[in-house]
Amino acid sequence: MSNYIGNLAKNVFDFSLTAVGTICISPLLVYIAYRIKKEDPGPIFFAHERIGKNGKPFPCYKFRSMVTNSQEMLQQYLTENPAAKEEWEREFKLKNDPRVTPIGKVLRRTSLDELPQIFNVLRGEMSLVGPRPVIQEELDKYYGETAKLYCTVKPGITGLWQVSGRSDTTYDERVAMDESYINNRSFLGDIVILWKTIGVVALKKGAY
């Protein structure tokens, strides 16, 4: 029963805070959408499949920070740059990604590209705080037995990883942080992580 009440309280907290926050930042959302459209005509949002609670896939939303032909450009770039290919296979991202637009670089450095995940929270697919939203390939390759634990909760917009180094951490450290969060999660812990996130975003730590 305590688990049920805790999950219910977390869901109510997530939805209430996100609904109010969405209204407050709506002018910023409109402005970012305008800049994206002006700089590189195409979709404003980008949805990439992530794994949610109970192993259910869902479209994880972000502001589009790359050119529209990003997949074709990526394949060509990785073919021509073996070091970049190794980095991509290891991290599933590139520190100096040639596909990122000028406004996209700003969005990534400030983590504003992740703002549309508030809609995932409102849809009940994500929480404000939780483990990182990952793809199935990451779960299969890196998480091992921890994958079962990962699927017991909703991924979060922010979490222990985001306030502990982000992209400056190793993948093993990221998995360990997700496991630690899930095993020790609490309402007070979520509040602390949300507070710390403000400082991390302001200082742009580990973001690229």
Q: Give the CA-CA distance, first to last residue.
A: 41 Å
**Low-pLDDT regions:** none
Strand-residue proportion = 5-15%
- Major beta sheet, strand line-up: 1-2
Based on CA atoms alone, the radius of gyration comes out at 17 Å
Instruction: Using the alpha-carbon principal axes, give the shape.
Output: globular
> What portion of residues is helical?
55-70%
Order of helices and strands: HHEEHHHHEHHEHH
Number of helices: 10
Q: What is the number of independent domains?
A: 1
Which class best fits the helix and strand makeup? mainly alpha
Main sheet characteristics = 2 strands, antiparallel
Strand segment count: 4
* Average residue pLDDT: 88
Keywords:
mainly alpha; 208 residues; two-stranded parallel ribbon; single chain; 10 helices; 10% strand
